[in-house]
Specification:
The chain has about 240 residues and is mainly alpha-helical. It is built from nine helices and four strands.
Length: about 240
């Protein structure tokens, strides 16, 4: 794997970017630049850790990138203008998490759209290829999206609560925005050290699926080869 595909790089990159999102969230320009950086990183991670290695057209990559960035930015700016002004200050700190959750729901399916069209490879217990399943692809994308949101949640939900208390202290309140960003990055990083391995382990890398749950044509083809086969497997990606 390339360095940016490894979990340690994903953790480090996510820690720095999330710290920036948490510290710079008030002005539209800050939101735009933060979400652009975040979605650029997410697009790279989602593309390189998809299930399978078929090349994607540039149009698909660009559409996923712009869709995720636009939705995340729109959600952040919209919530900052509507919800945050009417709610307690701490509510505004949760806006970046909502934007990240929305973006994950768009970015991952878009970057893996070929799987939704063509399916992921299905194998037997010995690793023999049996075909490709769209049903399995749908399950893998849902589980990946859910685990990514679970990974982001602890740091992005707990850090605002911690910072709300810390900023009552004069020394912390007097920090410049960039020093505040460093502090939030370290806090988020401490949560990610636990959240990344836990989130990645929520669903096994190799998933099983009952033959009866597959598409009818694939099910018939598999049973025609081995009528005793009840369970098959697929790689869900990260």
């Amino acid at each position: 794997k390339q360095w940016y595909q490894r979990r340690v790089a994903i953790t480090a990159g996510g820690m720095v970017i999330t710290g920036i999102l948490m510290a710079f969230y008030k002005s539209p320009l800050e939101v735009f630049l933060g979400q652009w950086l975040n979605q650029s990183f997410n697009a790279l991670v989602n593309f390189t850790n998809r299930s399978g290695d078929k090349p994607l057209p540039n149009s698909v990559i660009l559409s996923a990138y712009f869709a995720a960035t636009s939705l995340a930015t729109g959600a952040s700016i919209g919530l900052n203008k509507t919800l945050a002004p009417r709610a307690p200050p701490i509510v505004g700190r949760f806006v970046p998490f909502i934007a990240v959750a929305v973006a994950n729901m768009v970015n991952i399916p878009c970057m893996r759209s070929q799987e939704l069209k063509e399916g992921v490879v299905i194998v037997d217990a010995e690793g023999n290829k049996l075909g490709q399943s769209v049903t399995a692809a749908q399950r893998s994308i849902v589980s990946t999206t859910f685990s990514r949101i679970c990974i982001a949640a602890p740091g992005m939900l707990m850090t605002p609560i911690i910072m709300e208390q810390l900023e009552k202290k004069p020394a912390i309140k007097a920090l410049s925005k960039w020093k505040n960003c460093v502090l939030q990055t370290l806090l988020v990083g401490s949560f990610l050290l636990i959240a990344v391995p836990v989130g990645c382990s929520l669903f096994a890398q190799v998933q099983s699926i009952a033959v009866d749950d597959l598409e009818d044509d694939l099910k018939k083809a598999i049973l025609a080869k081995d009528s005793s086969l009840k369970t098959v497997y697929y790689n869900k990606g990260l």
